[in-house]
Every structure is written in C-alpha cells, then in structure tokens.
C-alpha cells in the first residue's frame, strides 16, 4: 500500500490578473521508505504539490492521502525542510531543536537531552549554544534538519533543501541526508531543480512540466551508492 497517495489533484491560484492553473491531473503514489524527487522547470508546481502533501495548502479537487487518511492540515507525521532554514534567530542551536520537540509534546525535562542527541547526529557538537547568525549556511541547514528530525516524522518533505549552499557543503549535506534516511527509514519527497541532485539522492525521479503543472515522466534510479 502506498504511504502517500495523490489522485487527480488540481490547484489554481487567484491573482489580480485572474486565475492561474498551477497543477492539473496530478497522480502519484509513494511507498513507505521510498526517496522520490520532483524535478521540473521553475513554476511547474513542485512546491505547490509539496505544500499540499504537507497540509499547508488544499487542492481545489482531487485527493491527497497519507497512510490512508485525507490530508487536511499539517501534522507531526510530516516534517518540512525549506531552502531558507527558517531558524529562530533569538534561540540557540539547542533551543531551536528543542522547539521542535515542544511542538511534538516531549516533556520539558527530556527536551534538551533529546535535542543534544540530534545535535550530535548532524555533527554540531560544540555548537549547541551558538545562535544561527554565528553559523555557516551549511551548519544552519543542519540545525533545520535536526529540528525536523527530532520529532521523528515518518515523512520528510524537502523543498530545495541544499539550494542555498555552496557545492562542497551541498555534497557533504547530501551524503549526510542519505546516511540519516538509511538509518531512520524515512519516506522522502524532495523538490529540486537540480537533476544531478535528484539522481544522486533518490530512488525514483518524477518529472513535471508546466502550463499546467503536471507529471509528464518518471524513471527509477539504480546506482551503487556504496
Ligand atoms: P515550482 O515550485 O515548480 O517553481 P510553484 O509551485 O512555486 O512552482 O508555482 C506553480 C505556479 O503557481 C507558478 O505559475 C506560480 O507562479 C504560481 N503560484 C505559486 N504560488 C502562488 C501564489 N501564492 N499566488 C499566485 N500564484 C502562485
Ligand atoms: P559547513 O557549512 O559544511 O559547515 P563551511 O565551509 O561553511 O562548511 O564551514 C566549515 C567548518 O568551519 C565548519 O564545519 C565549522 O567547523 C567551521 N565554521 C564555519 N563557520 C563558522 C562560524 N561562524 N563559527 C565557527 N565555526 C565555523
């Protein structure tokens, strides 16, 4: 059974110039544990689709289900990571990560200990008490990833997660993500305009095109990552 099921989804945005059909006839099923990339030109609706799976936007018609249940709002079963890390500037690394745990209902006494585990997981030991502005871009993205992973969502929704990073940092983050996903068995849906990144990370690449945004192709990736 698929964990994420997208069927006959359509979505328009209302603008001053009228209605823009962003997505039409989108169908996609993703199994538990899969790593799927969505690629396609800017404006083809990749982010719109990702945010609908996240429950931040509603389709005009069609159905999006996660584990057989209609998605109607955001939930802790789905964790989002954005290109812009969206950390709280007034909280330290440890506090930013603990904030995710607060949202998940982890008791106050356990939060800092659990947050510390995730600090180690993403390689930020020693930086717990830094503020986001005191960190490099790659380190900030690691904090954002740790904050999302800390409440253990089954599904990771990634929107150009490494798009703002220089190529060397991006490569080390990509390997880190693969390692984390393999050990924590996540289902991942990632939006990227970088086909190389999609092929490097995912097991299946789904290709979209625009006017209106829809899925036009998909292919499996079978490379030796060891
Ligand atoms: P992508 O992520 O592939 O670049 P988006 O999902 O961001 O595509 O956008 C899909 C289409 O919907 C584009 O034509 C875009 O201009 C339009 N769109 C996205 N968000 C809005 C919005 N808030 N208001 C109006 N149009 C939007
Ligand atoms: P990354 O973004 O992957 O950490 P960088 O090249 O930006 O890569 O940084 C390399 C290393 O330099 C980091 O892992 C960290 O040890 C150190 N570093 C970077 N920025 C800072 C900073 N603002 N304060 C302290 N150490 C830093």
What is the fold's blueprint, element by element?
Layout: E1 2-15, E2 18-31, E3 35-39, H1 46-54, E4 61-66, E5 69-70, E6 78-81, H2 93-103, H3 108-121, H4 137-149, E7 155-159, H5 167-184, E8 187-191, H6 195-201, E9 204-209, E10 214-220
Parallel strand pairs: 3-8, 3-9, 6-7, 7-8
Antiparallel strand pairs: 1-2, 1-4, 4-5, 9-10
Helix pairs in contact: 2-3, 2-4, 3-4
Bound molecules: adenosine-5'-diphosphate (2 copies).
The site of one adenosine-5'-diphosphate has 13 residues, from strand 1, strand 2 and helix 1.
Family: Belongs to the ABC transporter superfamily.
GO molecular function, one term: ATP binding
Protein name: Nitrate ABC transporter ATP-binding protein
Descriptive keywords:
globular; 6 helices; binds adenosine-5'-diphosphate; 226 residues; 6-stranded mixed sheet
> What structural class do helix, strand and pairing data support?
alpha/beta
| Helix and strand run | EEEHEEEHHHEHEHEE
Distance between the termini: 28 Å
Largest sheet: 6 strands, mixed
How large is the count of helical segments? 6
Overall strand count? 10
Helix content: 25-40%
Poorly predicted runs are: none
Strand order of the largest sheet: 6-7-8-3-9-10
What is the mean pLDDT? 92
Rg on CA atoms, Å:
18 Å
What are the bound molecules? adenosine-5'-diphosphate
Question: What shape does the CA trace take?
Answer: globular
Pfam family, one: ABC_tran
Protein name: Nitrate ABC transporter ATP-binding protein
GO molecular function: ATP binding; ATP hydrolysis activity
Domain ABC transporter: 4-226
């Amino acid at each position: 059974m698929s964990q994420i099921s997208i069927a006959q989804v359509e979505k328009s945005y209302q603008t001053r110039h009228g209605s823009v059909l962003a997505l039409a006839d989108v169908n996609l099923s993703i199994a538990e544990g899969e790593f799927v990339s969505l690629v396609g030109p800017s404006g083809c609706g990749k982010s719109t689709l990702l945010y609908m799976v996240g429950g931040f936007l509603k389709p005009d018609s069609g159905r999006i289900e996660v584990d057989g249940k209609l998605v109607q709002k955001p939930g802790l079963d789905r964790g989002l990571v954005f290109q812009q890390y969206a950390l709280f500037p007034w909280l330290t690394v440890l506090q930013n990560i603990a904030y995710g745990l607060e949202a998940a209902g982890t008791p106050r006494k356990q939060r800092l200990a659990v947050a510390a585990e995730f600090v180690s997981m993403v390689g930020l030991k020693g930086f717990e008490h830094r503020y986001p502005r005191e960190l490099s871009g790659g380190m900030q993205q690691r904090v954002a990833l740790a904050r999302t992973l800390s409440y253990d969502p089954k599904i990771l929704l990634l929107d150009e997660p490494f798009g703002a990073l220089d190529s060397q940092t991006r490569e080390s983050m990509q390997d880190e993500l693969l390692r984390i996903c393999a050990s924590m068995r996540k289902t991942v849906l990632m939006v990227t305009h970088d086909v190389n990144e999609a092929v490097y990370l995912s097991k299946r690449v789904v290709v979209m095109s625009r006017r209106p945004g829809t899925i036009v192709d998909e292919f499996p990736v079978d490379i030796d990552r060891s």
